[in-house]
TrEMBL record:
Keywords: ATP-binding, Nucleotide-binding, Transport
Protein name: ATP-binding cassette domain-containing protein
All residue ranges annotated as the ABC transporter domain in the record: 3-237
SMART domains, per the entry: AAA
Matching PROSITE patterns: ABC_TRANSPORTER_1, ABC_TRANSPORTER_2
Keyword tRNA processing included in the entry's annotation: no
One Pfam family linked to the record: ABC_tran
Protein species of origin: Dyella humi
Molecular function terms from GO: ATP binding
InterPro entries in the record: AAA+_ATPase, ABC_SmlMolc_Importer, ABC_transporter-like_ATP-bd, ABC_transporter-like_CS, P-loop_NTPase
Length: 381
């Protein structure tokens, strides 16, 4: 049971905003839809909310056709980044709105509406704010009122479109934890749209990665981070960076060395892409087996050290990330040459249409780079 989205397509003129999108959402699940601007996230939400209709495809909830229902009868609560509160209404009036506009037969009594609003304001921790107007609230408080307003109709599905998008970084982080706890206690099926990787990975049970109207990958935050299914997912989620590698048969050519890769189906590939993540570029003594890099730009950010590295034969610098502890142990002043090892690489083989045919995450058999030519241990495919 839950929501089953099948083969949704939405086109605006010649532009395809949603292309064959299929997704199952379990009851009570918290799913984040993550993708860059224009990837189709809002288009998907609008269709689920009943604000738009797809050109093709279906959405079923517990075997009922959701698309056949009028927006007001879908039991959907909406919170948008710019879904402003009614400025001329108090907080209590805003929260009560969804109940007050119900047809009279379905409308609760005034006393029940009052009790419900009080309960909701308690839940979103805004007791005592009932008589204020939106202009008298902070951005974070306004979004909590918007959430209370969405919850007032007791939705079966909560759709949140960048709800914290307009808030400053610190408030965002606080509200993330708060919303997660809130979801845990209420268990409402929730779809949360964001273009912020941290937000999606930190909050969601599962993450849907969208790219140009298509779903590239669906998985737990850990799965998507560890095993990105496409070069896009790797770049967007795991900050994967392209290395100038080539694969011929079972041999991978990288930085002037030739490596053997086992069981990688890249023979017929139109294109091979090899990625490395910043944290897989580890510091090493500047000796024979390390890759030599020039330190261009060093930043200390919240307990981590980030650096741009100039590596011979690469046009763009590589971004690396270490802990302060590792940096203190191995560090060198900016401008110096340092040694690094590449601990893990993800190799993608693509066909002519850009579809991934084969993927492997490979680790050199020991930390050293480059190592003696030999088989790399393939840990997953
Ligand atoms: N009514 C419309 N008419 C024409 N094009 C549209 C319409 N609505 C959306 N689009 C286009 O469809 C694409 C997807 O838009 P959508 O709003 O779903 O993206 P998004 O992933 O939510 O982006 P953002 O993070 O910027 O909100 C965009 O290129 C957008 O310009």
């Amino acid at each position: 049971m839950g929501i089953e989205i099948s083969r949704l397509r939405r086109q605006f003129g010649a532009f395809v905003a949603l292309d064959d999108v299929s997704l199952k959402i379990g009851d009570g699940e918290f799913v984040a839809v993550l993708g860059p601007s224009g990837s189709g996230k809002t288009s998907l939400l609008r269709i689920l909310a009943g604000l738009d209709q797809p050109d093709a495809g279906s959405v079923f909830r517990d075997d009922h056709d959701l698309l056949a229902l009028d927006a007001r009868r879908r039991g959907v609560g909406l919170v948008f980044q710019h879904y402003a509160l009614f400025p001329h209404m108090t907080v209590a009036q805003n929260v009560a709105f969804g109940l007050r506009v119900r047809p009279w037969r379905l409308r609760p009594r005034a006393s029940a509406i009052k009790a419900s609003v009080e309960g909701l304001l308690r839940q979103v921790e805004l007791e005592g704010f009932a008589d204020r107007y939106p202009a008298q609230l902070s951005g974070g408080q306004r979004q909590r009122v918007a959430l209370a307003r969405a919850l007032a109709i007791e939705p079966r599905l909560l759709l949140l479109d960048e709800p914290f998008g307009a808030l400053d970084a610190q408030v965002r982080v606080t509200l993330r934890g708060w919303l997660r706890e809130f979801h845990r206690s209420l268990g409402i099926t929730t779809l949360f749209v964001t273009h912020d990787q941290d937000e999606a990975l930190e909050m969601a049970d599962r993450v849907v990665v969208m790219n140009r109207g298509r779903i590239d990958q669906v998985g737990t935050p850990e799965q998507i981070y560890r095993q990105p299914a496409t070069p896009f997912a790797s770049r967007f989620i795991a900050r994967g960076q392209t290395l100038p590698a080539q694969v011929k048969g079972q041999q991978l050519h990288l930085f002037g060395h030739v490596w053997h890769i086992e069981s990688f189906a890249g023979d017929d590939a139109h294109e091979i892409t090899v990625h490395v993540r910043p944290e897989d570029i580890v510091l090493a003594p500047l000796s024979g087996d390390a890759l030599k890099a020039q330190l261009l730009n060093l930043r200390h950010v919240a307990g981590t050290v980030r650096a741009s590295l100039r590596v011979e034969s690469l046009d763009d610098p590589l971004e690396a990330e270490w802990s302060e502890r590792d940096w203190a142990r191995h560090g060198a002043p900016s401008g110096d040459a340092i040694g690094v090892h590449l601990q893990a690489l993800t190799v993608f083989a693509m066909d002519r249409e850009g579809r991934v045919q084969s993927r492997a995450t490979v680790h050199p058999p020991h930390a050293g780079f480059p190592i003696a030519v030999g088989p790399w241990r393939r840990v997953e495919a």
